[in-house]
Specification:
There is one protein chain. By secondary structure, the chain is α+β, with helices and mostly antiparallel strands. The chain has a single domain (15-174), classed as 3-Layer(aba) Sandwich (Aminopeptidase), CATH 3.40.630. The protein is built from 5 helices and 7 strands, in the order E-E-H-H-H-E-E-E-H-E-H-E. The longest helix is centred in the middle third of the chain and has 13 residues, at 122-134.
């Protein structure tokens, strides 16, 4: 079995896509001190700040480098819904983004909480919120993707909530830490092999 070298300035990951083809049984959401706040057409800087806060440990960077007009086309689209998970003081600690732009389908584009909340049961609460919002009239498929850069429990988490894997691809991209898009110490579990920007 041949191994394929990855250049030092690149990162490779295996992306797994998962789907639900029918609405899961309705269950009460686990308790959480968080609440979900709808952000219709959020300001780009506010959105990117939360995106970075939630995603930097997992090398989320796509929305940070997206041209402003492209980002606005997503955030201003009425078929894309963005929510912030906030604590009692109103501090944003997580995000949920649902994309209904393909008829009959909802993509859970981004689902995540800040690392400090990992392992405290809030992920189950956020997924219950996501599924409650995703399954609406006219939707017959909800899907999500995760990759080997995400939290090690992510794939199992989605499967426990009823998602079934259906496709796997290999993706490679320039390491966003090298270009200074993300902090040099982001995702310390993923070695940075290239020279960091100064």
């Amino acid at each position: 079995m041949p191994l394929i070298p990855v250049p030092d300035d690149q990162i490779a990951t295996i992306v797994t896509s998962l789907e639900m083809r029918e609405r899961p049984p309705l269950r009460p959401a686990p308790p959480s001190p968080l609440r979900l706040t709808h952000w219709p057409a959020p300001a780009s800087d506010k959105y990117k700040a939360l995106f970075r806060r939630v995603g930097e440990p997992w090398l989320w960077f796509s929305r940070l480098v997206m041209p402003e007009d492209s980002l606005r086309r997503v955030l201003d689209d009425a078929k894309v819904e963005v929510y912030a998970a906030t604590d009692r003081a109103g501090i944003e600690l997580g995000m949920l983004e649902l994309d209904f732009r393909v008829e009959g389908t909802c993509e859970l584009s981004y689902v995540g909480l800040v690392p400090e909340l990992t392992g405290k049961g809030n992920g189950g609460w956020l997924m219950a919120q996501a599924l409650g919002l995703a399954w609406r009239k006219g939707v017959d498929r909800v899907w999500v993707h995760t990759c080997t850069l995400d939290h090690p429990a992510a794939l199992g988490f989605y499967r426990r909530h009823g998602f079934v894997p259906y496709k796997r691809i290999v993706e490679s991209f320039a390491d966003p830490r090298i270009a200074g898009i993300l902090a040099p110490d982001a995702a310390p579990h993923i070695p940075c092999l290239g020279a960091l920007a100064r």
